[in-house]
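Sample entry (277 residues):
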Amino acid sequence: MASAASFSYAAALTSTVRNKFRLMTWNIAGLDHEPDELRECTLAQCEEVKMYSPDVVYLQEVTPSTCGLLRSTLQDYKMIPATEGRYFTAILLKNSSVQHLSGSIETFLGSKQGRQLQTVRAKCADAELTLMCSHLESQGKSAGERVRQLKTVFERIAEASSNSAVIFGGDLNLRDKEVTKAGGLPNGVFDIWSLCGEPPDAEFTWDPTQNDKLEFPFKMTAKCRFDRLYLKQGTTSGLKVVPERFMLVGKKRLPVCETFPSDHWGIVCDFKVEETK
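Predicted structure, serialized as tokens:
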């Protein structure tokens, strides 16, 4: 993995080169922590955002208490929370590089966990983007509802403006077989990890064999690609959004609570915007 110094340079480059942008998605695990530990974890997550300097951030498991801390610490961003419930998603847009156009929230009617699809329309690097963030239904027993939610998202992606590239992602809790049950990826929708060559060191975003944030009464051997990003190009804009690099972040152990900021690794993806030929 490259050094923090090289990432700092890359982060600065992303913000200054007109045809490039960076997106981060991360389940920040804002539930069920002691207040002091939660504060340390949230501040560490903010430091990761500052270090990688993404133009767009998708967050899951934001809570009312962490929302205020995120907003006050990340003042270079416009923070758009989905709701004001016990926990929710939020999309952050860098003030200096992203223009916010509009947004909407759709609640999944069958959800027992208050899950929603958050959509923000924005413009970045001269490209119009439809940014979709969600935290799909959790746990294996909720597979049926999760598949229904994924189908709904695929429908919304199909309905998006043809002038806009769509980037959908978050903690989707997906297993590959569930994507198949949803009918597979629709035409024109691509898994960004696959587009980036399926880097093996960026495959498993939830890996208790390496991340001991959560305690289990038995040895965990499962490793899962719960967190994902999907891309659909706009067809009439004359531009295409090309993913260039896909990496995992949040792997630095915290000094006080001696654990990781979240039980999920975050994803950072770099994009360039090109004219279609």
